[in-house]
């Protein structure tokens, strides 16, 4: 039971990290486009 909860927690952390990385990349690309039109 505890192992399942731990795996779900790790999956959630992994998903959040990927989501944050994608958001950071998009904002960085948008900034580059705005700076260099």
Spatial gap, N to C terminus: 54 Å
Instruction: Give the SSE order as H and E letters.
Output: H
For the residues shown, what is the average pLDDT?
Answer: 90
Work out the helicity level: over 70%
Helical stretch tally: 1
In one word, what is the shape? rod-shaped
Tally the beta strands.
0
Transmembrane segments: 12-33
Keywords: Membrane, Transmembrane, Transmembrane helix
Describe the structure.
- The structure is a single chain.
- The model has no long low-confidence stretch (mean pLDDT 90).
- The protein is mainly alpha-helical and 37 residues long.
- The termini are far apart.
What is the strand and helix layout of this fold?
Layout: H1 2-35
Transmembrane segments: 12-33
Keywords: Membrane, Transmembrane, Transmembrane helix
């Amino acid at each position: 039971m505890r192992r399942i909860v731990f795996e779900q927690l790790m999956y959630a952390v992994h998903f959040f990290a990927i989501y944050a990385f994608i958001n950071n990349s998009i904002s960085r690309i948008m900034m580059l486009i705005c700076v260099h039109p």
